[in-house]
Design brief:
Radius of gyration: 18 Å
Order of helices and strands: HHH
Number of strands: 0
Structural class: mainly alpha
Helix content: 40-55%
Largest sheet: none
Mean pLDDT: 80
Strand content: under 5%
Number of helices: 3
């Protein structure tokens, strides 16, 4: 820790319950440590079914804006009304 920054500011305290640890172990055990795989396919399919539109999982909101060309129209945003 730098002397000029004596206190660390935590953005969020990590919490992993047993379910999360099970998924982490499964990812390592199955060697699916990448941006593709059966869990990602299942997430995209479930979200698409939920919103009634095609869906793709991305690594950040910035990536989503890039895919849409900076246009938020038509994006499913948490808390946004349709």
């Amino acid at each position: 820790m730098s002397p000029s920054f004596p206190h660390r500011i935590h953005l969020s305290k990590p919490h992993l319950g047993e379910g999360e640890w099970r998924h982490v172990r499964e990812a390592f055990d199955s060697n699916w440590l990448s941006t593709v795989g059966p869990n990602l396919d299942a997430l995209e399919a479930a979200f698409a079914a939920l919103v009634g539109r095609p869906a793709v999982a991305l690594s950040s909101g910035t990536a989503g804006f890039a895919v849409r060309g900076g246009n938020r129209a038509g994006m499913a945003l948490p808390g946004a009304s349709r």
